[in-house]
Design brief:
The protein has 183 residues and is of the alpha/beta class. The chain has two domains: 1-50; 56-179, TolB, N-terminal domain (Rossmann fold). 51% of the residues lie in helices and 20% in strands. The chain has six helices and six strands, in the order αββααβααβββα. Strands 1, 2, 3, 4, 5 and 6 form a six-stranded mixed beta sheet that branches. Strand 4 and strand 5 form a beta hairpin.
């Protein structure tokens, strides 16, 4: 019987070690899971609120005019085209809100700077058609939202033979130069 006692002590010791290892492994799994869930929640909750340092945000408003029918025909998709052009920039450098995001605010009567503030934009690009006796002019302006400063203004003839693609590219390139973005 003397020989059986050490085997029982050895098996009890082995069982204690297994139980200790199991508790340690369980504690590590719980701790790693809690760390993962906590970091995931942190990223989700704070992800919307943090933008890269130095990143600017541009809100492109739909083109407005004296008569909605004329603007709808002549400048349909113009703001979307500008937003798409600027959307090609590095998103860490420039964020863009297009007319899909800004039109509901414009239609509710908010002025361009208020639209920019509502969206958290730094700049607002607006366009409006000004009709004359025989011709029309597209006036585009880029405003800084925080103080309303005009950063750029361009006037373009928008007659019946309007080449919208060339006009869009002209506005986009001039604003690109003002924003000091790569072309």
């Amino acid at each position: 019987m003397a020989r059986g006692a050490p085997l029982m002590e050895d098996s009890a010791l082995v069982e204690d070690r297994k139980a200790g290892a199991h508790r340690t492994l369980t504690a590590l799994v719980i701790m790693m899971s809690a760390l993962f869930v906590g970091s995931l929640l942190f990223m989700v909750l704070s992800g919307d609120q943090r933008s890269p340092e130095g990143r600017r945000v541009l809100a492109v408003l739909p083109v407005q005019g004296s008569s909605p029918e004329t603007v709808a025909d002549r400048f349909a998709g113009f703001g979307e085209g500008l937003a798409a052009y600027f959307g090609r920039a590095d998103p860490m450098v420039l964020g863009v809100f297009g007319p899909a995001s800004t039109s509901r605010l414009v239609e509710s009567g908010e002025d361009p700077l208020s639209v920019g503030r509502t969206l958290g934009a730094d700049m607002v690009l607006v366009g409006r058609e000004v009709s004359g006796d025989l011709s029309a002019t597209l006036v585009s302006e880029l405003f800084r939202v925080d103080d309303g400063t005009t950063l750029w203004r361009g006037e373009y003839e928008a007659g019946l033979d309007l080449d919208r693609s060339a006009l869009l590219l002209g506005v986009a390139l001039e604003v690109t130069g003002v924003l000091d973005l790569p072309r």
